[in-house]
């Protein structure tokens, strides 16, 4: 016979009822019993009794009753934020599980969407039973203890938890532009041709362009014309429209290169030291394992294509 789980810790918590905490949150937001009663669809008297009952349970007042209305006591103000956060997290969890319990939620940096989105769509076409939602973010990290994601693609230095992390591909930087941007063959393009061209920067500090130029033996920027963007993807999209020349990651623009929407006119490519990594919590579900295996295989194919490109027409250096 199986041993029943030990739930004594729940009793030790001695928490008030969820209804009381919800009422407290609404009253604290409105600071008006009548308005709170309307939002909760109960009478004003019921709201007042619930707040009084909660204060009696806790042993201290939560509100000051004044002629002009309610105000939170110092203890009430201290208690409100964690209760609101807990109620929001419970609401999100119930909505998520109730709507599509099998949906996989993957967080990713905005720039990685160029590589990730078409592959996720292809996976869903091949496996219609899988539901995958991508959430793009300018944040380059994830905290599974507070963020409701099943997996995440993160950008930066390799994480310290290889047990549940898979390296996808390294960031390899080189200038990119439309095929007719320089108006001549790619083989004859030189750095001097960048003068008077608009340089598209994916960051305000211009570090990607400066890194590539430094490895090319050039100090400073060859052109005074520039535009700055908040993400690499925005800079690449501007280059695709012919507005300038951007620094791009060769793997992220893999499909654009193959379709000849863009070109990499200079043979020098620089490994920045950053990479894209797939992270996930322990014990992935079968559906998540399918997605992990698929993305790992797609990354292997992309790394092979990059290796072929570097061995035939480009050369790679590693940033110091």
From TrEMBL:
Signal peptide positions on this chain: none
CDD domains to which the protein is assigned, alphabetical: PBP2_GcdR_TrpI_HvrB_AmpR_like
Taxonomy, superkingdom: Bacteria
Domain HTH lysR-type residue range list: 16-73
One matching Pfam family: HTH_1
One GO MF term: sequence-specific DNA binding
Keywords: DNA-binding, Repressor, Transcription, Transcription regulation
InterPro entries from the UniProt entry: LysR-type_TF_proteobact-type (IPR058163), LysR_HTH_N (IPR000847), LysR_subst-bd (IPR005119), WH-like_DNA-bd_sf (IPR036388), WH_DNA-bd_sf (IPR036390)
Keyword presence, Lipid metabolism: no
Gene3D superfamilies: Periplasmic binding protein-like II, Winged helix-like DNA-binding domain superfamily/Winged helix DNA-binding domain
GO biological process, any: DNA-templated transcription
Keyword Ligase: no
Family under the similarity heading: Belongs to the LysR transcriptional regulatory family.
Protein name in the entry: Glycine cleavage system transcriptional activator
Biological source species: Ewingella americana (strain ATCC 33852 / DSM 4580 / CCUG 14506 / JCM 5911 / LMG 7869 / NCTC 12157 / CDC 1468-78)
């Amino acid at each position: 016979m199986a041993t029943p789980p030990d739930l004594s810790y729940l009793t030790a918590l001695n928490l008030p009822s969820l209804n009381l905490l919800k009422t407290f949150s609404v009253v604290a937001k409105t600071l008006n019993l009548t308005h709170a009663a309307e939002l909760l669809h109960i009478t004003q008297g019921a709201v007042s009794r619930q707040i009084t009952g909660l204060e009696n349970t806790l042993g201290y007042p939560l509100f000051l009753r004044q002629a002009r209305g309610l105000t939170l006591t110092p203890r009430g103000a201290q208690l409100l934020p964690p209760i609101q956060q807990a109620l929001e997290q419970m609401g999100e969890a119930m909505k998520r599980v109730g709507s599509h319990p099998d949906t996989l939620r993957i967080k990713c940096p905005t720039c990685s969407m160029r590589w990730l989105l078409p592959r996720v769509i292809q996976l869903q076409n091949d496996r219609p039973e899988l539901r995958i939602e991508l959430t793009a973010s300018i944040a380059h990290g994830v905290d599974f203890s507070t963020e409701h994601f099943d997996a995440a693609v993160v950008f930066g230095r390799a994480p310290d938890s290889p047990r549940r992390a898979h390296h996808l591909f390294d960031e390899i930087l080189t200038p990119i532009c439309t095929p007719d941007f320089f108006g001549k063959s790619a083989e004859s393009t030189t750095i001097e041709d960048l003068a008077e061209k608009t340089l598209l920067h994916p960051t305000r500090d211009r570090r990607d362009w400066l890194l590539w130029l430094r490895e090319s033996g050039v100090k400073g920027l060859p052109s005074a014309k520039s535009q700055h963007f908040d993400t690499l993807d925005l800079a690449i999209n501007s280059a695709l429209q012919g507005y300038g020349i951007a620094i791009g990651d060769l793997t992220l623009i893999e499909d654009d290169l193959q379709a000849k929407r863009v070109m990499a006119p200079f043979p020098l490519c620089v490994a920045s030291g950053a990479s894209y990594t797939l992270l996930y919590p322990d014990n992935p579900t079968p559906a998540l394992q399918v997605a992990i295996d698929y993305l790992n295989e797609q990354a292997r194919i992309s790394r092979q294509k990059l290796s072929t490109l570097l061995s035939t027409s480009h050369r790679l250096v590693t940033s110091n």
